[in-house]
Amino acid sequence: MVKVSLIIPIFNLATYVERLVYCLKKQTFTDCEMLIIDDGSSDNSFELLQKFVRECEDGRIKVLSKAHSGVSDTRNVGIERSKGEYIMFADGDDSFASDYISEYVSGIEEDDSDIAFYPFDIVKGGSIKELTKYQTRYEELARDNHYSKRDLLEFLSTGRVGGYPVAYISKKSLWDKVQFDTRFETLEDLHALFNLVMRSSELKVSFFKNGYYSYEVREDSQVHTAGWEGFYDRVSVEIDMKKRINDPKLKKNLSSMIYIEYLNHVFNQMNPDQSREMYVFLRFNFFDVKLSKKQRIKALVAMVYLNVQSKRSKNDQNAR
After folding, report:
1. pLDDT of 298 above 60
2. What is the overall mean pLDDT for the chain?
3. Within-domain flag for 83
4. Which of 320, 238, 225, 317 is nearest to 277 (CA)?
5. Rounded-to-integer distance, Cα 101 and Cα 52, Å
6. Which of 39, 54, 62, 189 has a CA positioned 20 to 30 A from the CA of residue 133?
7. Coil vs helix vs strand at 216
8. Cα distance between residue 287 and residue 270, in whole Å
């Protein structure tokens, strides 16, 4: 048994492997294992990984390889193989400070928490990206006393807390009956965190002000090229969350979050051929949500646009 297991799935990340091993090698925390799991890469990621790990001669770093099955299953394999009292996650194309593991562990232990969240930088094109007003600033949630399970569910249902696995450390015992759902390719991390919270009788939750992790946004990553298929995954995850929550306020929060995400996606990736189904879903599933004036205008425009496109699509089909 070690104090903490850091789980890092990689897939076709040959460009980033050397930097990853360097970030792991320089970690100041010693009582840990760092599991890099290659998810059946089709490039030379695994060969490079073996080379750099062999050269760095650090017994904390362990390399595994498996047939390609996706990031969710790869994280599940990591959890199953892990020997740590605590679980942390990192992505293979990200970077982190030398005291990243040390600070996460000391924070959760000193605060006597079950799960602890830390802010992180979002890096795009080599520059730190400014957060929008809709994105979570975990440092603003930092306080001396714990948050509860109910508090965390409210944060999740309003989008104040996302599913980012890289942003928290948790007791491994919380994962005893929880896995990342392999059915989903986007928001699978939020779904897993939600399941972890729901399966816990109670939780002591902490947030900290200082960040030690840089999250890399790549335009070619699966998350950013998912399109409509990924959108359906996200909505499916949020609808599943809504169905499993009994609290009326949290249900309404989730309805609003789904609705707003729906509108954003409609405006960003509208395709007339898919609009009829969108219109029906939008009109009959989210009539109870609360929106700001700006969001209501956006919703009205989207409804009108979808209605027009739906009729056009239907007329086109009849004309054939």
Report:
1. no
2. 84
3. yes
4. 317
5. 21
6. 189
7. strand
8. 21
Alpha carbon 44 to chain centroid, angstroms: 26
Give the tokens for residue 218.
């790549």
Q: How far apart are the first and last CA of the chain?
A: 67
> Residue 61 pairs with which residues in a beta bridge?
34
DSSP symbols for 134-187 = TS--GGGG--SSPB-HHHHHHHHHHTSS---GGGEEEEGGGGTT----TT-SSS
Q: Which domain holds residue 283?
A: 246-319
- Please give the model's pTM, rounded to 2 decimal places: 0.81
Last residue of a domain, one of 223, 256, 278: 223
Q: What φ, ψ does residue 145 adopt, rounded to 5°? A: -100, 165
Strand order in the sheet with 32-39: 61-66, 32-39, 2-10, 84-89, 168-171, 115-117, 205-207
Query: What percentage of the chain exceeds 70 in pLDDT?
Result: 75
The CATH number of residue 65's host domain is 3.90.550.10
Tell me the C-alpha to C-alpha distance, in Å, between residue 16 and each of 48, 88, 155.
10, 20, 33
Same-domain check for residues 295 and 152: no
* Angstrom distance (rounded) from CA 158 to CA 162: 9
Torsion of the alpha carbons at 234, 235, 236 and 238, rounded to the nearest 10:
90
Proportion of the chain above pLDDT 90, given as a percent: 58
Distances (CA, A) of 193 to 186, 188, 204, 267, 311: 13, 9, 14, 28, 40
Burial classification of residue 220, based on how many CB atoms lie within 10 Å of its CB (0-12 exposed, 13-18 middle, 19 or more buried): exposed
Residue 243 binned pLDDT confidence (cut-offs 50, 70, 90): confident
